[in-house]
């Protein structure tokens, strides 16, 4: 079973969640990896913002072959309201429930969601990364903060995503 450290209680108001994000921001570390990544997980969450049911799944892949090592999923209920910028408080408990079911702890995790490209630099990727003590990467489909120039048309082209003078991500052309 994969382990994690409980950094805080999940029962709080949106105002308390914002304050917690401001405090957690100081704990997020951006640093180069010192060891080669052999396994990577992808974590995704699905929900209807008008309902309490949350679906969370994690797939662990072996690199560079992308062989599936393990898959887990959970269906659970959230108690936190839908508030843009605070989705990690709605989604993370379900991701952590799925994480606890893993037999293989991956070297890194990629999330469908924000990392530091977030108003308080603590999107779901950076938030859960602190809890599971693993390198994480947020890969979002939309921009929450910052500006970027359109990448060149060829697949793999990218440009930096910059917010208030700080590079917080990249705009990547995948097709």
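^ structure tokens above, recovered residues below v
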């Amino acid at each position: 079973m994969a382990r994690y450290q409980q950094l805080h209680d999940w029962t709080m108001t949106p105002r308390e969640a914002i304050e917690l994000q401001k405090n957690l921001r100081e704990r997020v570390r951006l640093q180069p990896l010192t060891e080669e990544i052999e396994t990577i997980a992808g974590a995704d969450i699905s929900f209807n913002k008008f309902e309490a049911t949350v679906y969370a799944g994690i797939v662990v892949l072996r690199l560079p072959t992308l062989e599936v090592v393990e898959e887990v999923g959970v269906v659970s209920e959230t108690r936190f309201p839908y508030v843009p910028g605070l989705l990690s408080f709605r989604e993370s408990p379900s991701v952590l429930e799925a994480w606890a079911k893993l037999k293989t702890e991956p070297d890194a995790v990629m999330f469908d969601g924000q990392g530091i490209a977030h108003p308080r630099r603590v999107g779901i990727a950076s938030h859960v990364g602190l809890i599971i003590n693993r390198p994480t990467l947020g890969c979002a489909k939309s921009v929450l903060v910052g500006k970027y120039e359109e990448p060149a048309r060829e697949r793999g082209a990218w440009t930096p995503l910059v917010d208030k003078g700080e590079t917080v991500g990249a705009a990547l052309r995948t097709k």
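The chain has three helices and seven strands.
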